[in-house]
Design goal:
The protein is α+β, with helices and mostly antiparallel strands. The protein has a domain of 78 residues: Methane Monooxygenase Hydroxylase, Chain G, domain 1, CATH 1.20.58. Helix 2 packs antiparallel against helix 3. It is elongated, with a radius of gyration of 18 Å. The relative contact order is 0.13.
Length: 129
């Protein structure tokens, strides 16, 4: 997973990752053998890790901006874009296919001063070394 999804995130690498994850899924479904309870638990763990990798790649490709510092820095989309992406990204798997949609962020229950909303962004270094 780190080979393909580690920041800075590059679209081509993430798509390569998706292709590799599909190959791994096919191998798991066609060739994995479980002989005892321990191997069953390990196979379920491997399947869960693969599910998370597929979801992370899909979500990262869906969100065409950079946000949260280095955590989601997209090389092709280096700027934060609140106009289009101040939202939650919701992932679902429908009929075996991953889907994504946006859900608005609900209003804050406790009012937050405008200066506090941008505190994280002010910590970012704006100039390249």
């Amino acid at each position: 997973m780190n080979d393909y999804l580690q920041p800075p995130k590059v679209t081509a690498k993430m798509k390569l990752g998706q292709a590799r994850f599909a190959e791994i899924r096919e191998d798991m479904e066609s060739a994995m053998v479980v002989r005892d309870a321990h191997e069953l638990m390990r196979s379920l763990e491997a399947a869960s890790i693969l599910d998370c990798a597929e979801m992370a790649a899909f979500a990262s490709l869906f969100r065409t901006e950079s946000r949260w510092g280095l955590y989601h820095h997209r090389v092709e989309y280096p700027e934060k874009n609140d106009h289009d992406w101040f939202c939650h990204s919701i992932l679902r798997k429908r009929d075996g296919q991953m889907t994504a949609e946006k859900r608005p962020v609900a209003p804050y229950i406790v009012p937050i001063d405008e200066s506090e909303r941008s505190a994280y962004d002010r910590q970012r270094i704006r100039q390249h070394a």
